[in-house]
Structures are given as structure tokens and as C-alpha cells.
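Bug #2210: C-alpha cell dump truncated for Acyl-CoA thioesterase?
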Amino acid sequence: METETGADRGEVVLRLVPHLTDINANGHIFGGWVLSQMDIAGGIVAARIAQGAVATVAIESMTFITPILLGDVVSVYATEERRGRTSVAIRIDVVATRGIGMEEVVLTSGVYTFVALDAQHRPRPLPVV
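Reproduced locally. Full output below:
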């Protein structure tokens, strides 16, 4: 996979350090932990675009590229990929800064789809751009 610059990935929405309690049986960070962080970051960007509440409706694609290690500083990048009438797809890339050399390692990538919600929690049209 080609290395991207931060500008190519979109904005850093979250920056976190996983805890000891986030380790799975293999000694890596639990995949569900990173999925959750991606959903939070994507939701922040989608809500900004929708100018209101959104709900995750799909994870269209998800690729785990390399494990997340204890001690990694994890950055979650998000950018709008495409927009429908009531939904928006957000590309989310997760990158670690690792070790003393501050090596940047691409961890995972995915596309999450969010739908804008009205006051009754039903889909509503996105604001016109």
C-alpha cells in the first residue's frame, strides 16, 4: 500500500492511545476497539455534514492491514467519500505513530455510511451544498 500524507487522508478527527484493557488474546489491540473508534470519528464528520443527528447504517468495506500494538499513538482520519439524498459515506483511515523512531504505520481503512435523522429518528434529506 502506498503511503499517504495526512492531507490526503482528510482531517484527524481522533487521536488516542489504546489501554492494556484493549488487548485481545493475541496481544494486539482488539479489532472491535478500532471499529468503535472509526465509527465515532466517522459519526463526528457525518453529523457535521448532515448538520444534525446521524446513524451508522453500513460498513461498506473494511481492511485490517496490520495489528495495533500497545503503545501505538492511533490517529483516526476521516473524509467525505460520497453523498446521497439522505446518506453520506465517510472514508476512515487509521494510522499509528509507533516506537522511538515515530514510524507511521497504516493500520486499517474502511468506508462507513451514515444516514441523517429527523426528530422521529427517520431518514431525512441532507442539507443542500
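Output looks complete on our side. The mean pLDDT is 92. Marking as cannot-reproduce; reopen if the truncation happens again.
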